[in-house]
Design goal:
It is built from five helices and twelve strands. Strand 4 and strand 5 form a beta hairpin. It is elongated and about 70 Å long.
Length: 338
Amino acid sequence: MTTAPPAGTAAPVPAPAITVDPWDPGYATSLTAEAIGELDASPVQLDLDVELPSGRWRPIAPAAEGLPPAGLLVADGVRRIEARVWVGHPEGAPDGEMPAPGIAASCAAGLVRCTPGGPAELAEVDVRRSLFTPSPHAADLTTWAGTYTAVRAKGGAAEQLSQALQQQLSDIEVGLATRYRTASGHDGDLLIVDGPLRGRAHLPRTIGYVKTHHAAYLKGAELAVLTALRPGERTPVFLMTTSWARHSWYLRLPTPSAAPWAGIARCEAAPDLPRDAVVELADHSAAIIPGLAGVDYKDPRAPQNLVPIGGLEKLLRHRLGDAGLLYRALRTATARRP
């Protein structure tokens, strides 16, 4: 028998039924939603004449210089899917409505500040736990290990859920950098963000650092310039447009390997920067980044995984907490839900 709430008291809102999928969260669910294809399959358009005419491309070695007087900020983040879940209607499945897929995930972002003549220091850290799902019934999921805040995803495909998690992580990094720069009052610092600059191009004095190559954008004579780079040298700046535009250039980090792409990283800058401003950023990157290169006996992703990035990632993964404990907390919390 159900007891009605006292007069004048609102009835409690039923919690949605959430079930943790038993599959390893590193894989797709046992019943996957429809795939949506590549996130950015747009054709690539290149303007190779931004800094030098394409016929005059050559490796560029910038004048030697250290860190900017105001210092260098390095931003990075880590993410982890704790469990794949199914979010159902709080009062059962009306008219055969299927539960919606989702992910319970944790992410952490941080900033490291490097100053001339001083050690690298942790500046900011932010950790979030969220429940991503397209279900309109989703509510915050509270466990003994923390609360997973409900976030509405555009769809239930694995790629869409992953994209929602990545967007949150990018937003956290932007927020951290903006707040820190405002509070510290440092003017003239340089910010390096790990990964493409997409969604972060509005940040001033910022370089996107891409260490993994999914395509060779340059061809012919320009590609020959890239493969001929020596450590500390860079290609001229070019403008690259897919579904979004950005300035870009390649540089080579110190490496004992003679392979054509060994030690190659690609940098990005905002598309609306004047030529002189983006060339200045490119010169700063080629003068600073090679000195931050990782070493192979400490990092298997060396030299492209920079020392500040590798150290920050290690700290952030620790801040995420123990994956096994968080998974058990999710199983316990969802087992008690109606």
